[in-house]
Task: inverse folding
């Protein structure tokens, strides 16, 4: 990076091969210069591994050592591959292929299938779950929705570990794998699934790798042709390769050793998919002459965050732990990690939302904050709490930025305006490129001020606002750029899946957060049974859970909050315990681990030192007795059932007419507030109101999902509707 006028999104292409090396630290530079023979890069979290390997490829290309078309860089997600392509393009090495294993294999399979097999490649099955359901039905096995998903995952695991149906039961026993049903039964469904695929002439994603491996093994002429094309291989996240992916990589390589792998055994968290760190840990055994380089300078996290991360791994056991990397923070000191204990999960969610709101008020962008949890089912209570607090959020795992409807529509509008040029009246008063973009996107819903609240309206605005920010950065980096230039840039980014950042707090599972980072991270639900998860039985399974928490901790740059709740629901028995992984690291859990290279001790909430915040304050809930069904008396545990105060299956005495009037009123309020309807009240809350027909504030506020804040905002209207009267009107001023 040179002149300050250039945005970091649009850096100038380095002028020479040597300029590619500028700004690399000594270890990263060593990686970039190691262009021959097998190379193994052990890279800790936040140490700049992607920077190191992309500069390595770019240096090799710019120096004339590597031909761009002869390099194949493979990784595990389309997002990571897109980021790699974007970085290589910025470094002047745009001709290099950067793909996922599946994408690279599919291209080869489509090209060579007519020659190797004949005819057209069978249709690729987008989702296999329906076919698995058909296979189970053929086997006269009934599976509910959750069992169907689990059996589908088992079939995927079997295929990536190269296990055929007949060997599945033995493979399960050998791996100590928890099986959702009788292994022989799953093996039978697996065999029928394969038969149905043949009957219907379809293949699945695992078949893409299996068939490519089969062709390369059987047809040496095709294998030789691919090896002539690709002379040099780079594999990112090498700790996550499956046996099947390793087999494909071996066939691509042949008897050559021009291979660079990058990974960290301490971030192996996908063993349930067949991933194993063994290939990374055994690399020196397979390649005795390999160059091994360690990256331990952490540029992402403060010394306080790094110290906690090192402390977590310091207690780890097993082979991966023997190869752990001690990170050394390169950042200025920051606040200590905060530890908070709550009485119940709703209180934990509300407390988290308040702290997030405080961070945003203090200047931390919403897009630089994340709430991370162990399983996706935990997201609902945080979605509700953030919506109640007026904090925008986005769920990780939604469709890609450039595939969103509003972004596609915006692209069409910008392309049309670029073609019209000076003949578009929209652009008459627009003096520069950003003004032109704002004028065009104003026809698609963009405004200078964001809409209130969250939901679909806010999501659409955030997408358009991200395009406006991108245009501003582009104009700053390239003065004199036209609308046509911007459209071309957007097309390139769409092809590379290099999306601008959308502003909004991220809600994601710990697995989905891998590879991402934020200024502030809230790790929630850290109790025994959730972290480690209940079904983690073996020592290795428990250690993988520890690594998962380590991944979560290392997502944070500055602010890190860890919390847990003593019971699931208000009034529940406070029987939960915080995760064992924090023992000796959090205040009050035994002696603190000595400060390591990361620096900094571990303090309590807000860096106060020595204590745990018990979640006191306005959001602190009084503990009550267990919540029981008002019909049958059973103890309720599900959030939806507790809102209804009855079991889901118990008979309802709901006033259907009242429920419909409440829904119509809710739609009017949501429209006035610019929020989705659930931000006013959820369906379950409306059902509970229609069943109990409250006649006073006291009766209404006891219904779960109402609370004091919503009572103040909407209570008068709801009580009026329940009494058969007309509500008072909109509550936009609230």
Result:
């Amino acid at each position: 990076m040179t002149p300050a006028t250039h945005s970091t999104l649009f850096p100038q292409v380095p002028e020479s091969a040597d300029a590619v090396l500028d700004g690399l630290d000594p270890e990263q530079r060593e990686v970039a210069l190691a262009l021959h023979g097998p190379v193994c890069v052990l890279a800790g979290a936040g140490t700049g591994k992607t920077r190191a390997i992309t500069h390595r490829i770019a240096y090799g290309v710019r120096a004339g050592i590597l031909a761009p078309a002869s390099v194949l860089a493979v990784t595990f997600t389309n997002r990571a591959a897109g980021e790699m392509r974007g970085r290589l393009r910025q470094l002047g090495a745009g001709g290099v292929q950067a793909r996922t294993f599946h994408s690279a294999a599919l291209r080869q399979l489509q090209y060579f299938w007519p020659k190797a097999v004949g005819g057209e490649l069978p249709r690729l099955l987008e989702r296999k779950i329906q076919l698995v359901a058909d296979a189970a039905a053929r086997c006269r096995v009934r599976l509910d929705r959750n069992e169907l998903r689990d059996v589908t995952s088992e079939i995927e695991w079997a295929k990536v570990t190269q296990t055929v149906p007949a060997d599945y039961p033995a493979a399960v026993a050998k791996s100590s794998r928890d099986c959702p049903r009788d292994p022989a039964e799953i093996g039978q469904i697996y065999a029928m699934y394969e038969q149905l695929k043949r009957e219907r002439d379809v293949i699945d994603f695992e078949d893409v790798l299996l068939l490519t491996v089969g062709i390369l093994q059987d047809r040496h002429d095709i294998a030789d042709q691919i090896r002539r094309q690709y002379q040099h291989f780079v594999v990112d996240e090498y700790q996550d390769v499956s046996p099947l992916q390793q087999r494909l990589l071996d066939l691509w390589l042949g008897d050559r050793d021009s291979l660079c792998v990058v990974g960290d055994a301490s971030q192996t968290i996908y063993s349930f998919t067949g991933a194993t760190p063994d290939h990374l840990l055994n690399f020196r055994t397979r390649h005795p002459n390999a160059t091994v380089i360690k990256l331990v300078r952490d540029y992402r996290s403060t010394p306080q965050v790094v110290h906690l991360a090192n402390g977590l791994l310091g207690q780890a056991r097993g082979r991966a732990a023997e190869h752990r990397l001690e990170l050394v923070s390169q950042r200025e000191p920051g606040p200590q990690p905060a530890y908070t204990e709550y009485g119940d999960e709703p209180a934990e969610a509300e407390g988290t939302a308040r702290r997030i709101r405080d961070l945003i008020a203090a200047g931390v962008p919403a897009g630089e904050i994340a709430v991370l949890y162990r399983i996706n089912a935990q997201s609902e209570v945080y979605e509700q709490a953030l919506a109640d607090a007026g904090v925008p959020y986005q769920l990780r795992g939604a469709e890609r930025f450039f595939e969103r409807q509003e972004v596609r529509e915006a692209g069409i509008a910008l392309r049309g305006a670029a073609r019209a040029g000076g003949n578009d009246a929209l652009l008459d008063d627009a003096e520069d490129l950003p003004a032109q973009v704002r004028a065009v996107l104003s026809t698609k819903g963009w405004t200078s001020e964001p809409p209130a609240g969250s939901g679909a309206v806010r999501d659409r605005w955030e997408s358009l606002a991200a395009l406006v920010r991108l245009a501003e950065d582009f104009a700053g980096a390239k003065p004199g750029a036209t609308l046509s230039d911007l459209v071309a840039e957007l097309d390139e980014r769409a092809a590379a899946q290099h999306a601008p950042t959308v502003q909004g707090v991220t809600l994601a599972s710990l697995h989905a957060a891998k590879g991402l980072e934020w200024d502030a991270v809230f790790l929630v639900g850290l109790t025994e049974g959730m972290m480690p998860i209940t079904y983690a039985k073996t020592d290795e399974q428990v250690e993988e859970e520890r690594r998962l928490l380590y991944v979560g901790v290392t997502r944070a740059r500055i602010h890190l909050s860890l919390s847990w709740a003593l019971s699931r629901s208000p009034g529940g028995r406070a029987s939960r315990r915080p995760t064992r992984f924090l023992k000796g690291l959090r205040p009050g859990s035994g002696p603190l681990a000595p400060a390591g290279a990361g620096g900094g001790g571990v303090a309590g909430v807000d860096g106060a030192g020595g204590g745990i915040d018990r979640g006191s304050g306005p959001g602190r809930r009084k503990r009550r007795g267990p919540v029981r069904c008002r019909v049958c008396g059973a103890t309720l545990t599900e959030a939806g059932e507790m809102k209804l105060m009855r079991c889901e299956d118990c008979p309802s005495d709901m006033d259907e007419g009242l429920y419909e009037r409440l829904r119509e009123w809710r739609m009017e309020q949501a429209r006035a507030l610019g929020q989705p309807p659930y931000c006013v009240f959820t369906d379950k809350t409306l059902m509970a109101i229609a069943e109990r027909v409250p006649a006073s504030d006291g009766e209404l506020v006891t219904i779960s999902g109402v609370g004091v804040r919503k009572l103040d905002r909407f209570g008068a209207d709801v009580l009026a509707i329940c009494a058969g009267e007309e509500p008072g009107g909109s509550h936009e001023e609230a």
